[in-house]
Amino acid sequence: MGGSAKSRGAERTGVRGARPAAERDSGGAAGLTRKQRLELYYWMRLTRSLEERLVNLYRQTRVVGGLFHSLGQEADAVGSAYALQRGDILSPLIRNLGSMLVKGATPVEILKQYMARGDSPTRGRELNIHFGDTERGFIGQISPLGDMVPVMAGVTLSFKMRGEARVGLVYVGDGATSTGAFHEGINFAAVQRCPLVVVIENNGYAYSTPTVKQSLVKQFADKAIGYGIPGETADGNDVVATYEATKRAVDRARRGEGTSIVELMTFRRKGHAEHDNQSYVPPGELERWAAENDPIDRYVARLSSEGVPTDELQAIDARIQREIDEATDAAEASGVPQPLDALTGIYADPPSERPLWFREGGAAVVQSSERPSSWGTFDAPAKGAD
Ligand SMILES: Cc1ncc(C[n+]2csc(CCOP(=O)(O)OP(=O)(O)O)c2C)c(N)n1
Ligand SMILES: [Mg+2]
User: Positive or negative, the Cα torsion across 225, 230, 235, 239?
Assistant: First the structure.
């Protein structure tokens, strides 16, 4: 099958012009039940409200690291992750909080992680959402752009070799598509026919670099042609269209038809992180996207037109507020990390080691007790030896 983009998604306001919501939204309910359609609303609203809470905490200096925000991209994260099944594996990025929530990450974990609490998933050693849980089906993110594509090629090759009907999904930004790792990983996955979906989140910018300075391709899905795989562009601000396009690629992968690209057209309405004031975005662009192409507003309009009463959505909003308040209280009540936590999970039994060995000029623990001879490494020279 050729790689040319099948459907053109929401085009960028001010760059390619936006169409009215009624025309843009995909038709039908995509085979989703009423309960599922409300779940999509719940996950998008939870993502937005949780990030709003995180911004408040950041401004109060209670979030100690950088804060990465997915404002305006909730539909692309939630709709794509929703197309996966239990047992499938997802590799998220900093703007995929919504995807992680769909896969079972909890608000309290996210808050503890950003607030660097001692009982957060990484015990305060990492201050964003770079944590994973293979049981729940999301693996830990890493910062180097594109590098998770070859990793997920390997993960999905293992599914294929074991004869498991499982699928992997890896997110990359428009910027990450310019890396060597993206190219090597997707080419390998394609030729090995790995059950992998590569979702390119085309949000207009890679930090301050606009997509027009990133690549000359018209649509990033067109890159699929170069790898001999299918590519499809969908409206990433339409949660149902996103779900449908990703589901098509997921189903193909599960049927043994290999790797595909799904490009989701969206827009990053916040800076790269909270500190970035987006002075490089043309005036009016952010406001235009907020007014004309907000994924939650569009979905609320759609649900209303399908007969979902407003008070039902308001009840979901109230439930989310309660959940976030409770999670915030729990995160604030939990303690800060203890110094020895820095070693937990790294050495076999940290408490048995002298805590300040590294300040006393002693050899690393690994030199004395935990380096198996099978590693074939050499002993460090004894102190004072020639
Ligand atoms: C290989 C590599 N180069 C540069 C960086 C620094 N960096 C981190 S995020 C980012 C921009 C990413 O843009 P994009 O891939 O479009 O994702 P988005 O932030 O828009 O979701 C850059 C340049 C990095 N982490 N890794
Ligand atoms: Mg980008």
Answer: negative
